[in-house]
């Protein structure tokens, strides 16, 4: 089995990002974005997807947190795409319904190579710590388009904003773990076209 890892460096006038990512890890993470709640969400993503991730982000937080969050999504998407390689033998589809106290979040995804985000999370607070809740959508949008993943995130129930955000990151992690996992019955790629772009 090929080692499914990626190392990404991305530097712009707004952010400087370094990421090491392992699809077949153990859930280890070392993350510093400058936004505590965002760190917490990404740590949950790594832990519950059993991905290893080292991430350092230096962003223009003196402006706001938008560039930091969006560009991290871009880099994570690039890392996922690179680590997946030719996608031979993977399940391609994954879904998970994750409960967290009163909150229930569904994530379904397709590693099709075609980006799309259907997003239905409703927050009643503008911020969680220093993270603007509106940027959670921007993060998942950036991951989707950078990795070429069709992502559907649905809130089936929820009241506590922390629970909604955390359950979404965990559900995405579990669905991605399932979709990127190997199935011994699949000898090529899960597509009648013969490729997944």
CATH architect. name:
2-Layer Sandwich
CATH domain fold name = Ribosomal Protein S5, domain 2
The CATH superfamily is known as Imidazole glycerol phosphate dehydratase, domain 1
Query: How many separate helices?
Result: 4
CATH class placement: Alpha Beta
Tell me the count of domains.
1
Instruction: Return the average pLDDT rounded to an integer.
Output: 95
- The percent range for strand residues is 25-35%
The assigned structural class equals: alpha+beta
Radius of gyration: 16 Å
Any key phrases for this structure?
197 residues; alpha+beta; Ribosomal Protein S5, domain 2; 4-stranded mixed β-sheet; 4 helices; globular
What does this structure look like?
There is one protein chain. The chain has helices at 36-49, 66-84, 134-147, 161-180; strands at 5-11, 15-22, 29-32, 52-59, 93-100, 103-110, 116-120, 127-128, 131-132, 150-157. It is α+β, with helices and mostly antiparallel strands. The strands form 3 sheets. The protein has a 4-stranded mixed beta sheet, with helices on one face. The chain has a 4-stranded mixed beta sheet with strand order 5-6-10-7. A two-stranded antiparallel ribbon has the order 8-9. A hairpin with a 2-residue loop joins β5 (93-100) and β6 (103-110). The longest helix is centred in the last third of the chain and has 20 residues, at 161-180. The model has no long low-confidence stretch (mean pLDDT 95).
């Amino acid at each position: 089995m090929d080692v499914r890892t990626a190392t990404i460096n991305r530097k712009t006038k707004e952010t400087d990002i370094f990421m090491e990512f392992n699809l077949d890890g153990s859930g280890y993470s070392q993350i510093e974005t400058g936004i505590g709640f965002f760190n917490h969400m990404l740590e949950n993503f790594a832990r519950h997807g059993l991905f290893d991730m080292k991430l350092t982000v230096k962003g223009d937080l003196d402006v706001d947190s938008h560039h930091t969050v969006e560009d991290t999504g871009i880099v994570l998407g690039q890392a996922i795409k690179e680590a997946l390689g030719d996608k031979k033998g993977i399940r391609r589809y994954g879904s998970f319904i994750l409960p967290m106290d009163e909150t229930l979040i569904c994530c379904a995804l397709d590693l099709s190579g075609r980006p799309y985000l259907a997003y239905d999370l409703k927050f009643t607070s503008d911020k969680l710590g220093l993270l603007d809740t509106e940027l959670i959508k921007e993060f998942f949008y950036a991951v989707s388009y950078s990795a070429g993943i069709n992502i559907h995130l649905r809130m089936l129930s929820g009241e506590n904003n922390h629970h909604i955000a955390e359950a979404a990151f965990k559900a995405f992690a579990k669905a991605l773990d399932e979709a990127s996992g190997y199935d011994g019955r699949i000898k090529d790629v899960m597509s009648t076209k013969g490729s997944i772009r």
